[in-house]
């Protein structure tokens, strides 16, 4: 009994020495019997009905056609069964791929949300904690500078000059901290809205890269959902980064508008254009990030490359507005 279990454990049905238990063997056998019966029966019927020697040639021709037609019918049923299984497998594969893609999109959206939350937290800690410490250092240095300046001892002039240099260094450090915090999470995005944040980002892009970036904002509501404003802002940032790195452009024109219930961001440059193959290239992480971020919000990004005349990027997203509750006086 143990030897039998050892020999047959894990053996799939139809592979344990019983060839006729396999479904493909049963199908072939059934088709073979039916086709053989049809060919033999039809040949006997045609042969017994012929008495004239001149008609034998015609009958032979009909036998050949009968064989060809029967083979074609047999092949049709075999292929239909095979292709039906293939279609079912393809449909199942498509469903699995779509489910995996949806899970991946959900995971990307969750990762982006976590990353944005970390950026907000780090930006606030940098701005608040380091800002307060640098302000305290600045006040202590200024107080010490004033006390030394009140004394008439000229030997302290060198120390006073050093304190002035330290004070200037503290100012530069404070500005650097503010820039770092703004890079992690622009304060204008939370305090002044999406339009102002994009305009500020366009100005900083010009200062960093020397490429003029004109932006027009039209009909933009003030109460957009934070998730939508963050997604649009990050896509705008990534588009400008790609232009600075690859486009070799001399000018960038942008437009943010609302048409009906759709928010539209249009970005165009006059650079060398985009290679169409780079849109689906797995190495193009920036483009993939833009697409995934847009799809996570129910929108999509279209890249219209025009070699020699620049690139045109169109972002469309459903308009998400924060619902404000109205409190009526009692």
Structural commentary:
This protein is an alpha+beta fold and 330 residues long. The chain has eight helices and five strands. It has helices at 2-8, 23-48, 55-149, 157-184, 187-191, 194-209, 226-247, 285-296; strands at residues 213-217, 252-259, 262-269, 300-306, 310-318. The longest helix is centred in the N-terminal third of the chain and has 95 residues, at 55-149.
SSE diagram, text form:
Blueprint: H1 2-8, H2 23-48, H3 55-149, H4 157-184, H5 187-191, H6 194-209, E1 213-217, H7 226-247, E2 252-259, E3 262-269, H8 285-296, E4 300-306, E5 310-318
Number of helical runs?
A: 8
Main beta sheet strand tally, sense and closure: 5 strands, mixed
Helical content class: 55-70%
Morphology: elongated
Whole-number radius of gyration? 38 Å
Biggest sheet: strand arrangement:
1-2-3-5-4
* Alpha-beta classification: alpha+beta
Percent of sequence in beta strands: 5-15%
What would the average pLDDT be, to the nearest integer?
Answer: 76
Secondary-structure element order, N to C: HHHHHHEHEEHEE
Query: Runs with pLDDT <50, length 5+?
Result: 1-17, 324-330
Distance between the termini: 86 Å
Number of strands: 5
């Amino acid at each position: 009994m143990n030897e039998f279990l050892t020999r047959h454990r894990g053996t799939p049905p139809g592979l344990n020495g019983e060839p006729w238990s396999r479904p493909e063997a049963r199908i072939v056998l059934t088709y073979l019997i039916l086709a053989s019966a049809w060919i033999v029966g039809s040949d006997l019927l045609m042969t017994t009905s012929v008495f004239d020697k001149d008609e034998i040639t015609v009958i032979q021709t009909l036998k050949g056609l009968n064989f060809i037609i029967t083979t074609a019918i047999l092949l049709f049923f075999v292929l239909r069964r095979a292709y039906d299984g293939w279609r079912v497998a393809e449909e199942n594969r498509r469903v699995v791929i779509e489910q995996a893609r949806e899970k991946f999109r959900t995971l990307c959206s969750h990762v982006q949300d976590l990353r944005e939350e970390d950026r907000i937290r780090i930006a606030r800690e940098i701005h608040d904690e380091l800002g307060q410490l640098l302000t305290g250092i600045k006040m202590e240095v200024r107080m010490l500078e004033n006390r030394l300046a009140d004394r008439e001892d000229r030997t302290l002039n060198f120390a006073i000059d050093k304190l002035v240099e330290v004070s200037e260094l503290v100012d530069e450090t404070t500005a650097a901290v503010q820039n770092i915090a703004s890079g992690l999470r622009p304060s204008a995005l939370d305090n002044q809205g999406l339009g102002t944040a994009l305009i500020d980002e366009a100005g900083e892009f010009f200062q960093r890269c020397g490429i003029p970036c004109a932006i027009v904002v039209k009909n933009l509501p003030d109460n957009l959902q934070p998730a939508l404003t963050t997604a649009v802002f990050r896509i705008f940032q990534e588009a400008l980064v790609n232009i600075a790195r690859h486009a070799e452009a001399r000018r960038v024109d942008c437009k943010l508008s609302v048409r009906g219930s759709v928010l539209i961001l249009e970005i165009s440059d006059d650079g060398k254009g985009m290679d169409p193959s780079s849109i689906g290239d797995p190495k193009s992480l920036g483009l993939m990030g833009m697409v995934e971020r847009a799809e996570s919000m129910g929108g999509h990004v279209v890249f219209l490359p025009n070699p020699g005349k620049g690139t045109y990027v169109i972002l469309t997203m459903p308009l998400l507005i924060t619902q404000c509750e109205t409190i009526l006086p009692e």
